[in-house]
Design brief:
Elements: H1 12-35, H2 43-57, H3 83-97, H4 99-103, H5 110-118, H6 121-126, E1 132-135, E2 151-155, E3 158-169, E4 176-182, E5 192-198, E6 204-209, E7 220-231, H7 248-282, H8 298-325, H9 331-355, H10 357-361, H11 367-374, H12 384-396
Parallel strand pairs: 1-4
Antiparallel strand pairs: 2-3, 3-7, 4-5, 6-7
Helix pairs in contact: 1-3, 3-7, 3-8, 5-7, 7-8, 7-9, 7-11, 8-9, 9-11, 9-12
């Protein structure tokens, strides 16, 4: 049986539409909002409204983070190219335009992916249209999400949250924050749940915004919770603590969002490769795809190597998303895709800066910006090292206690 690696025909219009948006709406304002750190890009309101309209009409189902979910219809035995695959293709194209602006799009936050992944049908309906950021990382936990110290204590008809979250993407701008907290520290991973906390809830305070290396158009906040009361029905999914299930419920979110981060990396790296290819051609460097790299110039050989690395990451991204659409366990593949793509994007963008010399290093082109933006894609949603640890545990069949 032949394997067709072309993008599914039904998703090509979505992909091409996203590329046009990236080229005509995001690229022109990219440098401006990189320089004006923390200034909200008002142009994104129109774009978000367009995406909402397309999603509601069904013309562009799965176009953004809110489209990511396990499609129950995939149980009918047929192969699906669904919302997860649509999302990674669209996000990659949008990040060809600008990663930070994609991260700043209203109602397309990682918190929206969490809601789409684990919320009950009633919650899906209730939180429809809400722009949700996601708060996981804490000052003393780093990438170890299982060590979360923020607590949620049941008190009558509400949970009382106490703790501090850092590096919350769109933490100031979003309508609500999906907060990961533990119901019982003594029960470890199994007691960690996620809660939707609307902005303006008493006890929740945005303490500060971070100044960053890259993705400057995206605000990154520190948020404190001090006796913050959240209604019991804002706990996403089931409130039951199941030690046998462990951390699986919470980690299901990552199985869907890590391919999205891989898509961001693929899009950003593709932008760098496309521009570098053009700049090398202008400098008289010809890349011949019909001849071995060893008989071509050093610059051409390097570009061929970078393109091969990019293609490998893209295929892993597509595999992880396709598996999610077809209700196949994809935790290993999601981590593989995220690890490979994150590392690839950093390597590709920095190598493109190097290949283009002073042109790549200056602000005359966007290459230096893409190199700065790409680094976060190897860090958030689980660092490179954490992804490799997850993959190693699964490949070797070892628990987190057995392989640290």
């Amino acid at each position: 049986m032949a394997i067709n690696l072309d993008d599914p025909k039904k998703l090509v219009p979505l992909r091409d539409q996203a590329h046009q948006v990236a080229m005509n709406m995001l690229r022109p304002i990219s440098r401006r909002y990189d320089a004006a750190e923390h200034e909200y890009p008002q142009e994104l309101d129109l774009l978000a409204a367009m995406i909402d309209g397309l999603s509601e009409s069904g013309a562009s189902s799965g176009a953004g983070a809110s489209g990511v979910k396990r499609d129950a219809s995939a149980d009918d035995g047929t192969v699906k190219n669904g919302t997860n695959l649509a999302s990674v293709l669209g996000i990659a194209e949008m990040c060809w335009g600008d990663v930070a602006l994609l991260l700043s799009l209203p109602r397309q936050g990682l918190g929206n992916s969490a809601i789409a992944s684990v919320a009950t049908p009633e919650q899906q309906e209730r939180f429809a249209g809400v722009w949700a950021s996601m708060a996981i990382t804490e000052p003393d936990t780093g990438s170890d999400s299982a060590s979360i110290r923020t607590t949620a204590v049941l008190d009558g008809d509400a949970y009382v949250l106490n703790g501090e979250k850092i590096f919350v993407t769109s933490g100031e701008r979003s309508d609500a924050v999906v907060v990961w907290a533990t119901l019982d520290k003594d029960l470890g991973r199994a007691a960690i749940k996620s809660f939707v906390v609307p902005k303006g809830t008493p006890g929740m305070t945005v303490e500060r915004l971070e100044h960053k290396l890259g993705i400057k158009a995206s605000d990154t906040a520190t948020i404190r919770f001090d006796n913050c009361r959240v209604p019991v029905d804002n706990l996403l999914g089931s409130p039951e603590i199941d030690p046998a299930q462990g951390f699986a419920g919470a980690m299901a979110t990552f199985d869907n969002t890590r391919p999205l981060v891989a898509a961001m990396a693929v899009g950003c790296a593709q932008a760098a490769l496309d521009l570098t290819r053009d700049l090398l051609a202008q400098a008289g460097v010809t890349v011949d795809y019909d001849r071995p790299a060893v008989v071509q110039s050093a610059a051409a050989a390097k570009l061929l190597q970078l393109e091969a690395d990019w293609e490998a990451a893209r295929l892993l991204m597509l595999q992880a998303a396709w598996m999610a659409d077809n209700r196949l366990a994809n935790a290993t593949e999601a981590s593989m895709a995220k690890a490979k793509a994150g590392r690839m994007a950093s390597d590709v963008t920095l190598s493109c800066v190097e290949l283009c010399g002073s042109v790549g290093y200056s602000e005359g082109e966007l290459l230096e910006k893409w190199a700065r933006d790409s680094k976060i894609l190897d860090i958030f949603e689980g660092t490179q090292q954490i992804q490799q640890l997850i993959v190693a545990r699964r490949v070797l069949g070892l628990s987190s206690a057995e392989l640290k």
